[in-house]
């Protein structure tokens, strides 16, 4: 992997990441395809058409459903889902730890019951690396614990110390797997994950420790789990400077357009979130003048596109009135068009962010964009 910063504007970074599956322009929003597909009947051809750079899939869900060994037998996740650009797979850690009533954490890993059929599963650092190696993703995430929020200082300190030990095991296992003759992707990258909740000193100490372990990139986990936006930004302010500037920085599971704009300003490169697809499936669409709920009666006779000037597949061909009709009639096309619009909106926003950083006008762009995307939709005709 090669990571090169092309421009900076304050702490905001404009960079490129060269991988075996292509170049990633950052800052980047990764479109979430949990089980190898974007929810909302969106194909990989659609993703290419709306400017998607990176697809993100879920290690845990692919393991307990289709099975990572079968996917390896079929040529890996890229071939399986017909996607020729980078894929990031999470470690499964967040999903495992969200099964609070079904799991038990030990030093060796986590014992838990499948949420699908209840069968017993064990996952530790080695198992997570093996699953991700079978999938053959471009970027694999280290296995960590996403500690609950809130939790005691003692719990967090013990959890973070174990996460460091698990990262050491992940690195060793990834190196072994990448050296095997039958591995799907011998150039698979490994990102370590910073944890520590809202304890600033624990975050900083953990960032310093894992920075010295020379991973290919670094993620900040355990945020957007119940703390306020202000707390999240405070943790980013103190943590990001302790992660290597010459490596990608990834804020996991974030977020709203406003969250992304604020986090880019704090030096973050990579983002992912289910918001654009989840909201789209419920008829909520993003515009530069706020969010619309297309189920609202006010759009029943509105023949304008979701957003004037938008070049997404929905706005190029269909009206708000028609899409609302589809949603009300429970036709899948309505959901699909809303998801496509939202992902296009996010991907386009990231292009605008990159251009603003290059032009050293990010502060002005951020202020203007925030004014538009926050709050309720304002109809320019009213």
Strand content bin: 15-25%
Provide the CATH top-level class of the largest domain.
Answer: Alpha Beta
Helical content band: 40-55%
Numbering strands along the chain, what is their spatial order in the largest sheet? 4-5-6-10-11-12-13-14
Radius of gyration: 21 Å
End-to-end Cα distance: 51 Å
Q: Provide the domain count.
A: 2
Question: What is the CATH architecture descriptor of the largest domain?
Answer: Alpha-Beta Barrel
Secondary structure category? alpha/beta
Low-confidence stretches: none
Count of helix runs: 15
Estimate the mean pLDDT confidence: 94
The CATH homology group name of the largest domain = Queuine tRNA-ribosyltransferase-like
Shape: globular
Number of strands: 16
Quick synopsis:
With 382 residues, the chain is of the alpha/beta class.
Overview of the structural elements:
Its EC number is 2.4.2.29. One of its GO terms (molecular function) is glycosyltransferase activity. InterPro entries: ArchSynthase1/Queuine_TRR, TGT, TGT-like_sf, tRNA_ribo_trans-like. Residues 11-371 form the tRNA-guanine(15) transglycosylase-like domain. The protein is of the alpha/beta class. The protein folds into two domains: 2-273, TIM Barrel, CATH 3.20.20; 280-373, no CATH class. It has 15 helices and 16 strands. Strands 4-5-6-10-11-12-13-14 form an eight-stranded parallel β-barrel, surrounded by four helices. A three-stranded antiparallel beta sheet has the order 1-2-3. Helix 13 (320-328) packs across helix 14 (332-358) and helix 14 (332-358) runs antiparallel to helix 15 (362-373). It is globular.
């Amino acid at each position: 992997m090669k990571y090169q910063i092309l421009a900076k504007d304050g702490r905001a970074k404009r960079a490129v990441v060269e991988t075996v599956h292509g170049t990633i322009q950052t800052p980047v929003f990764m479109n979430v395809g949990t089980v190898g597909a974007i929810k909302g009947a969106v194909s990989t051809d659609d993703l290419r058409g709306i400017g998607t750079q990176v697809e993100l899939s879920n290690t845990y869900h692919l393991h307990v459903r289709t099975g990572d060994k079968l996917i390896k037998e079929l040529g890996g996740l890229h071939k399986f889902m017909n996607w020729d650009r980078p894929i990031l797979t999470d470690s499964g850690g967040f999903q495992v730890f969200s099964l609070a009533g079904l799991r038990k954490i030990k030093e060796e890993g986590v014992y838990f019951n499948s949420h699908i059929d209840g069968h017993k599963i064990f996952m530790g650092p080695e198992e997570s690396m093996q699953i991700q190696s079978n999938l053959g993703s471009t970027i694999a995430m280290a296995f960590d614990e996403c500690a609950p929020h809130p939790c005691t200082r003692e719990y967090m300190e013990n959890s973070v110390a174990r996460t460091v030990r698990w990262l050491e095991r992940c690195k060793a296992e990834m190196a072994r797997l990448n050296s095997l003759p039958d591995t799907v992707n011998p150039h698979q990258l490994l990102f370590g994950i910073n944890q520590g909740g809202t304890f600033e000193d624990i975050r900083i100490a953990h960032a310093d420790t894992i920075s010295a372990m020379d991973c290919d990139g670094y993620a900040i986990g355990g945020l957007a789990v119940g703390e306020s936006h202000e707390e999240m930004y405070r943790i980013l302010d103190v943590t990001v400077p302790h992660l290597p500037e010459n490596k990608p920085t990834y804020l996991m599971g974030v977020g709203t357009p406003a969250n992304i704009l604020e986090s880019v300003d704090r030096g973050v490169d990579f983002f992912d979130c289910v918001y654009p697809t989840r909201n789209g499936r419920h008829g909520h669409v993003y515009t530069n003048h706020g969010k619309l709920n297309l189920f609202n009666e006010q759009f029943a006779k509105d023949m304008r596109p979701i957003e004037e000037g938008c070049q997404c597949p929905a706005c190029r061909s269909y009206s708000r009135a028609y899409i609302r009709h589809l949603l009300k009639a429970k036709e899948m096309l309505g959901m699909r068009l809303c998801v496509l619009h939202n992902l296009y909106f996010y991907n386009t926003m990231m292009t605008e962010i990159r251009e603003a950083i290059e032009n050293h006008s990010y502060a002005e762009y951020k202020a203007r964009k925030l004014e538009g995307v926050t709050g309720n939709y304002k109809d320019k005709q009213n």
